[in-house]
Design goal:
The chain is α+β, with helices and mostly antiparallel strands and 299 residues long. It has two domains: 3-160, Butyryl-CoA Dehydrogenase, subunit A, domain 3 (Up-down Bundle), CATH 1.20.140; 171-296, Roll (Nuclear Transport Factor 2, Chain: A), CATH 3.10.450. Helices cover 55% and strands 14% of the residues. The chain contains 13 helices and seven strands. Strands 2-1-6-5-4-3-7 form a seven-stranded mixed beta sheet, with helices on both faces. Helix 1 packs across helix 3 and helix 6 (119-131) packs across helix 8 (146-160). It is elongated.
Length: 299
Protein backbone atom coordinates (compact mmCIF):
# COMPACT_ATOMS: atom_id res chain seq x y z
CA UNK A 1 0.00 0.00 0.00
CA UNK A 2 1.53 3.37 -1.04
CA UNK A 3 1.39 6.50 1.10
CA UNK A 4 -1.69 8.01 -0.62
CA UNK A 5 -3.67 4.81 -0.17
CA UNK A 6 -2.64 4.78 3.48
CA UNK A 7 -3.97 8.35 3.91
CA UNK A 8 -7.16 7.90 1.89
CA UNK A 9 -9.10 5.93 4.47
CA UNK A 10 -8.66 8.34 7.40
CA UNK A 11 -9.29 11.28 5.07
CA UNK A 12 -12.61 9.80 3.89
CA UNK A 13 -13.56 9.35 7.55
CA UNK A 14 -13.38 13.13 7.98
CA UNK A 15 -14.70 14.19 4.55
CA UNK A 16 -18.27 14.91 5.64
CA UNK A 17 -17.09 17.03 8.57
CA UNK A 18 -14.70 18.96 6.33
CA UNK A 19 -17.37 19.58 3.74
CA UNK A 20 -19.74 20.85 6.43
CA UNK A 21 -17.08 23.29 7.66
CA UNK A 22 -16.35 24.49 4.13
CA UNK A 23 -20.03 24.91 3.22
CA UNK A 24 -20.74 27.06 6.25
CA UNK A 25 -17.64 29.10 5.49
CA UNK A 26 -18.40 29.58 1.81
CA UNK A 27 -22.14 29.03 1.31
CA UNK A 28 -21.43 27.24 -1.96
CA UNK A 29 -21.50 23.48 -2.40
CA UNK A 30 -19.13 23.41 -5.41
CA UNK A 31 -16.62 25.68 -3.66
CA UNK A 32 -16.90 23.61 -0.50
CA UNK A 33 -15.97 20.48 -2.43
CA UNK A 34 -13.06 22.34 -4.05
CA UNK A 35 -11.79 23.33 -0.60
CA UNK A 36 -12.01 19.74 0.63
CA UNK A 37 -10.19 18.51 -2.46
CA UNK A 38 -7.44 21.07 -1.85
CA UNK A 39 -7.11 19.74 1.71
CA UNK A 40 -6.62 16.25 0.29
CA UNK A 41 -3.92 17.49 -2.07
CA UNK A 42 -2.09 19.22 0.77
CA UNK A 43 -2.39 16.13 2.95
CA UNK A 44 -0.93 13.94 0.21
CA UNK A 45 2.08 16.27 -0.07
CA UNK A 46 2.73 16.62 3.65
CA UNK A 47 4.51 14.42 6.16
CA UNK A 48 1.86 14.03 8.85
CA UNK A 49 3.64 11.36 10.86
CA UNK A 50 3.88 13.79 13.78
CA UNK A 51 0.25 14.92 13.60
CA UNK A 52 -1.67 13.60 16.60
CA UNK A 53 -5.08 15.05 15.65
CA UNK A 54 -5.64 14.56 11.91
CA UNK A 55 -9.22 15.88 12.05
CA UNK A 56 -8.02 19.10 13.66
CA UNK A 57 -5.15 19.42 11.18
CA UNK A 58 -7.50 18.95 8.21
CA UNK A 59 -10.03 21.38 9.68
CA UNK A 60 -7.30 24.00 9.92
CA UNK A 61 -6.26 23.40 6.31
CA UNK A 62 -9.84 23.69 5.04
CA UNK A 63 -10.37 26.84 7.10
CA UNK A 64 -7.25 28.45 5.61
CA UNK A 65 -8.35 27.55 2.07
CA UNK A 66 -11.82 28.95 2.70
CA UNK A 67 -10.36 32.14 4.17
CA UNK A 68 -8.35 32.66 0.99
CA UNK A 69 -11.50 32.17 -1.11
CA UNK A 70 -13.49 34.62 1.01
CA UNK A 71 -10.75 37.23 0.76
CA UNK A 72 -10.59 36.72 -2.99
CA UNK A 73 -14.33 37.40 -3.22
CA UNK A 74 -13.83 40.68 -1.41
CA UNK A 75 -10.95 41.82 -3.61
CA UNK A 76 -12.48 41.12 -7.02
CA UNK A 77 -15.85 40.51 -8.60
CA UNK A 78 -16.27 37.01 -10.00
CA UNK A 79 -18.34 35.99 -13.01
CA UNK A 80 -21.57 34.28 -11.90
CA UNK A 81 -22.11 30.62 -12.61
CA UNK A 82 -23.54 29.68 -16.00
CA UNK A 83 -27.03 29.19 -14.56
CA UNK A 84 -27.74 31.74 -11.80
CA UNK A 85 -29.54 30.36 -8.77
CA UNK A 86 -28.58 26.73 -9.33
CA UNK A 87 -26.36 24.76 -6.97
CA UNK A 88 -24.09 22.44 -8.92
CA UNK A 89 -23.67 18.82 -7.85
CA UNK A 90 -20.71 17.75 -5.77
CA UNK A 91 -18.30 15.14 -6.96
CA UNK A 92 -20.39 14.34 -10.00
CA UNK A 93 -23.52 13.83 -7.89
CA UNK A 94 -21.95 11.00 -5.91
CA UNK A 95 -23.82 11.85 -2.70
CA UNK A 96 -27.07 13.65 -3.56
CA UNK A 97 -28.69 12.78 -0.23
CA UNK A 98 -25.73 14.16 1.66
CA UNK A 99 -25.80 17.33 -0.45
CA UNK A 100 -29.49 17.86 0.29
CA UNK A 101 -28.95 17.42 4.03
CA UNK A 102 -25.99 19.79 3.98
CA UNK A 103 -27.83 22.51 2.07
CA UNK A 104 -30.86 22.16 4.34
CA UNK A 105 -28.77 22.45 7.50
CA UNK A 106 -28.27 26.22 7.18
CA UNK A 107 -31.13 28.50 6.20
CA UNK A 108 -30.76 30.92 3.27
CA UNK A 109 -31.40 33.94 5.48
CA UNK A 110 -28.54 32.98 7.81
CA UNK A 111 -26.36 32.32 4.77
CA UNK A 112 -27.03 35.86 3.56
CA UNK A 113 -26.02 37.33 6.92
CA UNK A 114 -22.84 35.24 6.99
CA UNK A 115 -22.00 36.69 3.57
CA UNK A 116 -22.00 40.19 5.08
CA UNK A 117 -19.33 39.32 7.66
CA UNK A 118 -15.67 40.06 7.18
CA UNK A 119 -13.79 36.87 6.22
CA UNK A 120 -11.98 36.59 9.57
CA UNK A 121 -15.23 37.21 11.47
CA UNK A 122 -17.01 34.51 9.53
CA UNK A 123 -14.18 32.05 10.10
CA UNK A 124 -14.02 32.72 13.84
CA UNK A 125 -17.81 32.46 14.21
CA UNK A 126 -18.21 29.32 12.11
CA UNK A 127 -15.31 27.43 13.66
CA UNK A 128 -16.09 28.34 17.26
CA UNK A 129 -19.88 28.61 17.40
CA UNK A 130 -20.75 25.88 14.90
CA UNK A 131 -17.87 23.42 15.38
CA UNK A 132 -16.57 24.18 18.90
CA UNK A 133 -13.00 24.88 17.75
CA UNK A 134 -11.09 26.58 20.61
CA UNK A 135 -9.97 30.17 20.11
CA UNK A 136 -6.39 29.07 20.77
CA UNK A 137 -6.62 27.04 17.55
CA UNK A 138 -8.47 29.75 15.60
CA UNK A 139 -5.99 32.49 16.48
CA UNK A 140 -3.10 31.28 14.25
CA UNK A 141 -5.45 30.89 11.26
CA UNK A 142 -6.61 34.52 11.41
CA UNK A 143 -3.25 35.86 12.54
CA UNK A 144 -4.60 37.29 15.81
CA UNK A 145 -4.32 36.56 19.51
CA UNK A 146 -6.89 34.21 21.09
CA UNK A 147 -8.52 37.22 22.75
CA UNK A 148 -8.79 39.02 19.41
CA UNK A 149 -10.20 35.87 17.78
CA UNK A 150 -12.82 35.77 20.52
CA UNK A 151 -13.76 39.37 19.72
CA UNK A 152 -14.12 38.52 16.02
CA UNK A 153 -16.56 35.74 16.85
CA UNK A 154 -18.43 37.97 19.29
CA UNK A 155 -18.95 40.69 16.65
CA UNK A 156 -20.15 38.10 14.17
CA UNK A 157 -22.49 36.56 16.75
CA UNK A 158 -24.14 39.93 17.43
CA UNK A 159 -24.75 40.35 13.70
CA UNK A 160 -26.21 36.88 13.37
CA UNK A 161 -28.48 37.08 16.42
CA UNK A 162 -32.12 37.15 15.39
CA UNK A 163 -31.37 35.64 11.98
CA UNK A 164 -30.33 32.35 13.55
CA UNK A 165 -33.57 31.97 15.49
CA UNK A 166 -34.97 28.49 15.09
CA UNK A 167 -37.29 28.67 12.05
CA UNK A 168 -40.55 26.82 11.68
CA UNK A 169 -39.95 23.32 10.32
CA UNK A 170 -43.45 23.03 8.83
CA UNK A 171 -42.76 23.78 5.16
CA UNK A 172 -46.46 23.77 4.09
CA UNK A 173 -47.19 26.30 6.85
CA UNK A 174 -44.20 28.40 5.73
CA UNK A 175 -45.53 28.35 2.19
CA UNK A 176 -48.94 29.53 3.43
CA UNK A 177 -47.33 32.45 5.26
CA UNK A 178 -45.25 33.46 2.24
CA UNK A 179 -48.30 33.16 -0.03
CA UNK A 180 -50.34 35.36 2.28
CA UNK A 181 -47.47 37.85 2.40
CA UNK A 182 -47.33 37.98 -1.41
CA UNK A 183 -51.10 38.51 -1.68
CA UNK A 184 -51.10 41.25 0.97
CA UNK A 185 -48.14 42.98 -0.67
CA UNK A 186 -49.76 42.91 -4.12
CA UNK A 187 -53.06 44.21 -2.73
CA UNK A 188 -51.37 46.94 -0.72
CA UNK A 189 -53.06 45.58 2.42
CA UNK A 190 -51.07 47.16 5.25
CA UNK A 191 -53.07 45.52 8.05
CA UNK A 192 -52.69 42.04 6.54
CA UNK A 193 -48.93 42.57 6.24
CA UNK A 194 -48.72 43.69 9.88
CA UNK A 195 -50.53 40.52 10.97
CA UNK A 196 -47.93 38.36 9.21
CA UNK A 197 -44.85 40.14 10.55
CA UNK A 198 -43.11 39.72 13.89
CA UNK A 199 -42.97 42.99 15.88
CA UNK A 200 -39.16 42.98 15.62
CA UNK A 201 -39.03 41.95 11.95
CA UNK A 202 -36.02 43.09 9.93
CA UNK A 203 -35.71 43.60 6.17
CA UNK A 204 -32.20 43.49 4.72
CA UNK A 205 -31.45 44.37 1.10
CA UNK A 206 -28.05 43.87 -0.53
CA UNK A 207 -26.19 46.61 -2.37
CA UNK A 208 -27.42 45.60 -5.83
CA UNK A 209 -31.05 45.64 -4.72
CA UNK A 210 -30.66 49.07 -3.11
CA UNK A 211 -28.96 50.50 -6.20
CA UNK A 212 -31.70 49.11 -8.46
CA UNK A 213 -34.30 50.70 -6.19
CA UNK A 214 -32.54 54.06 -6.37
CA UNK A 215 -32.76 53.95 -10.16
CA UNK A 216 -36.56 53.61 -9.91
CA UNK A 217 -37.16 56.32 -7.31
CA UNK A 218 -37.31 59.01 -10.00
CA UNK A 219 -40.18 57.09 -11.60
CA UNK A 220 -42.21 57.18 -8.40
CA UNK A 221 -41.14 53.87 -6.84
CA UNK A 222 -40.58 53.85 -3.05
CA UNK A 223 -37.02 54.15 -1.79
CA UNK A 224 -35.45 50.96 -0.41
CA UNK A 225 -32.98 51.04 2.48
CA UNK A 226 -30.32 48.43 3.13
CA UNK A 227 -31.93 47.66 6.50
CA UNK A 228 -35.46 48.32 7.73
CA UNK A 229 -36.58 47.32 11.23
CA UNK A 230 -39.97 47.15 12.90
CA UNK A 231 -43.32 45.85 11.80
CA UNK A 232 -44.79 49.18 10.63
CA UNK A 233 -41.73 50.19 8.61
CA UNK A 234 -41.37 46.79 6.93
CA UNK A 235 -45.10 46.57 6.16
CA UNK A 236 -45.02 50.05 4.61
CA UNK A 237 -41.99 49.09 2.53
CA UNK A 238 -43.73 46.06 1.04
CA UNK A 239 -47.21 47.56 0.65
CA UNK A 240 -48.01 47.31 -3.06
CA UNK A 241 -44.43 46.43 -3.93
CA UNK A 242 -44.11 42.74 -4.87
CA UNK A 243 -46.49 42.67 -7.82
CA UNK A 244 -43.98 41.00 -10.15
CA UNK A 245 -42.74 38.43 -7.62
CA UNK A 246 -43.61 34.75 -7.81
CA UNK A 247 -43.38 31.86 -5.33
CA UNK A 248 -40.06 30.04 -5.22
CA UNK A 249 -38.01 27.70 -3.08
CA UNK A 250 -34.83 29.42 -1.92
CA UNK A 251 -32.44 26.82 -0.60
CA UNK A 252 -35.44 24.51 -0.21
CA UNK A 253 -37.31 27.07 1.91
CA UNK A 254 -40.46 28.88 0.67
CA UNK A 255 -39.63 32.33 -0.65
CA UNK A 256 -40.27 34.70 -3.54
CA UNK A 257 -38.37 35.58 -6.70
CA UNK A 258 -38.35 38.21 -9.42
CA UNK A 259 -37.60 36.09 -12.46
CA UNK A 260 -38.33 37.79 -15.79
CA UNK A 261 -37.91 35.23 -18.55
CA UNK A 262 -37.57 32.47 -15.95
CA UNK A 263 -34.14 33.62 -14.72
CA UNK A 264 -33.98 34.84 -11.10
CA UNK A 265 -33.01 38.51 -10.95
CA UNK A 266 -33.71 38.86 -7.22
CA UNK A 267 -35.11 36.69 -4.43
CA UNK A 268 -36.76 37.20 -1.07
CA UNK A 269 -35.47 34.74 1.55
CA UNK A 270 -37.76 34.52 4.59
CA UNK A 271 -37.11 33.41 8.14
CA UNK A 272 -40.39 32.38 9.77
CA UNK A 273 -40.86 31.46 13.42
CA UNK A 274 -44.08 30.99 15.34
CA UNK A 275 -46.09 31.50 12.18
CA UNK A 276 -44.70 35.03 11.68
CA UNK A 277 -41.99 36.47 9.48
CA UNK A 278 -39.02 37.55 11.57
CA UNK A 279 -36.62 38.40 8.73
CA UNK A 280 -36.71 39.08 5.01
CA UNK A 281 -33.51 39.17 2.96
CA UNK A 282 -33.68 40.70 -0.52
CA UNK A 283 -30.83 39.29 -2.61
CA UNK A 284 -30.01 40.68 -6.05
CA UNK A 285 -26.22 40.38 -6.21
CA UNK A 286 -25.46 37.95 -9.08
CA UNK A 287 -22.66 36.28 -7.12
CA UNK A 288 -24.95 35.58 -4.18
CA UNK A 289 -27.75 34.39 -6.44
CA UNK A 290 -25.32 32.02 -8.12
CA UNK A 291 -24.67 30.37 -4.76
CA UNK A 292 -28.35 29.89 -3.93
CA UNK A 293 -30.56 27.04 -5.03
CA UNK A 294 -33.64 28.81 -6.44
CA UNK A 295 -36.57 26.79 -7.78
CA UNK A 296 -39.42 28.78 -9.34
CA UNK A 297 -42.94 27.59 -8.49
CA UNK A 298 -46.29 28.02 -10.18
CA UNK A 299 -48.87 30.37 -8.74
Amino acid sequence: MDEQEHLAEPFETHRRHLRAVAYRMLGSLPEAEDAVQEAWLRLSRTDTSGVENLRGWLTTVVARVCLDILRSRRSRREDPLDVPGTVQSLAGGSDPEGEALLADSIGPALLVVLDTLAPVERLAFVLHDMFAVPFDDIAPIVGRSPAAARQLASRARRRVQGTAAAPDADRPRQREVVGAFLAASRDGDFDALVALLDPDVVLRADRVAVEASEARVARGAPRLSSEVRGVAAVAETFKGRARAAQPALVGGVPGLAFAPGGRPWAVFAFTIAGGRIIAVDLIADPERLARLDVELLEG
